[in-house]
Amino acid sequence: MNYKGYEATVEFDDEDRLFVGRVINTRDVIVFDGLSVDELEQSFHTVIDEYLEDCKSLGKTPDKPFSGRFNLRISSELHRKAAIKASKEGISLNTLVEQALLKMF
């Protein structure tokens, strides 16, 4: 599920007989639930809107969904090999890593 850039996963709770969702692309803990798909979707929208409004009223910057940037720590030897490969292919190191990750998904 996606709403305003926030993404959630959903599971069905057999014991309570309801859908439970959790926003996964933020460090803040944001959960919601619903008895039907429509109710679950509405709950997701509501909890995101409330989260954004709460942050605004508290003067807090909401934790944004992933920016597309991350630091990667690897050995210097692997870094050297990757930089050489990228150079040989005429692409940036970032593009090389992005292409490798895309192959995984």
What features would you describe in this structure?
The chain is of the alpha+beta class. The chain folds into 2 domains: 57 residues; 35 residues, no CATH class. It contains 3 helices and 4 strands. It has a 4-stranded antiparallel beta sheet, with helices on one face. Helix 2 packs across helix 3. The radius of gyration is 20 Å and the shape is elongated.
Distance between the ends? 18 Å
Q: Supply the helix-strand structural class.
A: alpha+beta
Q: Tally the helices: what do you get?
A: 3
- The count of DSSP E runs of length 2 or more, i.e. the number of strands, is 4
Strand order of the largest sheet: 1-2-3-4
Kindly state the percentage of residues in helix: 40-55%
The average pLDDT is: 93
Report the radius of gyration as a whole number of Å.
20 Å
